[in-house]
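#struct-pred
JK: can someone run the complex with flavin mononucleotide? inputs below
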Amino acid sequence: MKKIWIIHSSDYGNSETVANKIADGLKDTYEVRVEHLKNLTPEDFAKADLYGLIVAVRIFQFRSDKTIRNFLTGLNEVMGKPIPKFAYFSTHALKWKKFFIRGMKKTVSKLGCVEEVCTDILEIRLQGAKGPARDGADEKIEKFVSTLKEFMS
Ligand SMILES: Cc1cc2nc3c(=O)[nH]c(=O)nc-3n(C[C@H](O)[C@H](O)[C@H](O)COP(=O)(O)O)c2cc1C
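RT: done, structure tokens with the ligand placed:
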């Protein structure tokens, strides 16, 4: 089975929950691992022979989380061979604004270590900073899983 990792840097558990739900949707076709960024080093990625990488991006102070962006930039330096498929999703508390994700888009555009980037981005709005997700999240996740399955095929 091809390997997909879903990584997050969740504090309150919301992006981890979304990651787990995406994993549930993909695990019939792929070997999926959900992991907190703090448990991984760039070298783990270099060794893993990944087919896909899906990243949770939290929004802080109107910007996409710098920790995860810096980590991805660091991957460029260690990956011997690129990861064929890359996608990301976001959790946020305020009404969605396109500029929230601008920094992440910039980071991704410079990633030499991924081949193809999914153009669809899932945005999950929370009921405040600590969540939980607002109504309708499960339907959005389900739709994103279908998109991912097509993108990854
Ligand atoms: C200090 C702080 C600043 C935040 N700024 C924003 C923001 O500008 N826009 C927004 O939509 N959500 C904002 N949030 C909400 C976070 O996006 C939310 O807490 C995060 O996605 C939760 O993810 P987690 O449960 O996986 O930790 C902020 C949260 C914190 C704690």
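RT: quick notes.
Residues 3-152 form a domain with the Rossmann fold fold (CATH 3.40.50.360).
The chain has a mean pLDDT of 97.
JK: thanks, will look after standup
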